[in-house]
Amino acid sequence: MNEQVLKAKQIVENYDGRPLRIMEVCGTHTHEIFRLGIRQMLPENIHLISGPGCPVCVTPVGYIDQAIDLALNHHCTICTFGDLIRVPGSDMSLQQARAKGAKIVMIYSPTDAFTYAQSHLDEDVVLLAVGFETTTPASCMAIRDAKKNNLTNFSALVANKTMDNAYLALKDSADAFLYPGHVSTITGCQIYRDLCEEGISGVVTGFTGPEILTALAVIIKKLEKGQPFFMNCYPRVVRDEGSPSARKIIASVMEPCDSIWRGIGNIPGSGLQIKAAYQDFDARKKYGLENTQGHPNPACRCGDILRGDCMPNECPLFGKVCTPEHPVGACMVSNEGSCSAFYKYME
Ligand code: SF4
């Protein structure tokens, strides 16, 4: 451990000031913070909150219901990332729908869905497009390629989200944010300076133990000064301008809209929808889907956990009814979900 990291570790471990709430908003941070045992080294007055950084965790129940409707009632082939298949909908998950005859194809990239549709012209293929700024460009490219190739059996059910308005919605839940390293490679840093103007503080950080500890130490020292702040503690990867080309791809295919976040509700301007020029590839329009809120299990406390109002083990279902093998809520499904990480590393 070099001298700078050692100093950061001492600042964090010896902190004895007012109680601090620091929220990470990246599923990989959530996982790494648990895995590296960083929570155990924190003093009691530093409270780390696992916010809404896992895309699977924040995708609402109504979206899963729509995907199941497409599979069972419209006989579409659903192309999805693996984690989403086990997320409970109102009545069942996609995995359970598969047992009822739904055709579900696991993909590793949105491009796989486009390729699948090209080679299965007798199937109506729907890509489940979820995720934040890092995964959205690939979904936009798949939609763009489908239009370019006049691929009429391909569409996307879009629930992509952007983070900037989520910070505004959650600003009373945290004293400072650990901003996500991956998302920031796309957004760049200006959004954080704008948030700073709104009184919201945070630092961008990477995913190693030294990087996370350094970021926590910076937050502690900056909060002591009492002024809103932003610092990029991950400059070897995150450039100030982010990725203008990735943002351009997104802007060419999608536009901002309001979006429901599981457990949090509607956050104005935090979602993306397919632009009119690509509406033939919008599964909601193509199949006339009705917007539905869905019915999450009322006992599940994912929303409280994502807002930092309780810890996973305070949920009465945690580890008893709800386990990674039998998840009741989305936060127990993905490795990046806080309930799943807590179950794996803290039990
Ligand atoms: S333990 Fe399960 S039921 Fe409880 S909040 Fe987490 S995901 Fe929901």
UniProtKB/TrEMBL annotation:
<dbReference type="InterPro" id="IPR002780">
    <property type="entry name" value="Hyd_form_HypD"/>
</dbReference>
<protein>
    <submittedName>
        <fullName>Hydrogenase formation protein HypD</fullName>
    </submittedName>
</protein>
<dbReference type="GO" id="GO:0070025">
    <property type="term" value="F:carbon monoxide binding"/>
</dbReference>
<keyword id="KW-0479">Metal-binding</keyword>
<dbReference type="GO" id="GO:0051539">
    <property type="term" value="F:4 iron, 4 sulfur cluster binding"/>
</dbReference>
<dbReference type="InterPro" id="IPR042243">
    <property type="entry name" value="HypD_1"/>
</dbReference>
<keyword id="KW-0408">Iron</keyword>
<dbReference type="GO" id="GO:0051604">
    <property type="term" value="P:protein maturation"/>
</dbReference>
<dbReference type="Pfam" id="PF01924">
    <property type="entry name" value="HypD"/>
</dbReference>
<dbReference type="GO" id="GO:0005506">
    <property type="term" value="F:iron ion binding"/>
</dbReference>
<dbReference type="InterPro" id="IPR042244">
    <property type="entry name" value="HypD_2_sf"/>
</dbReference>
<comment type="similarity">
    <text>Belongs to the HypD family.</text>
</comment>
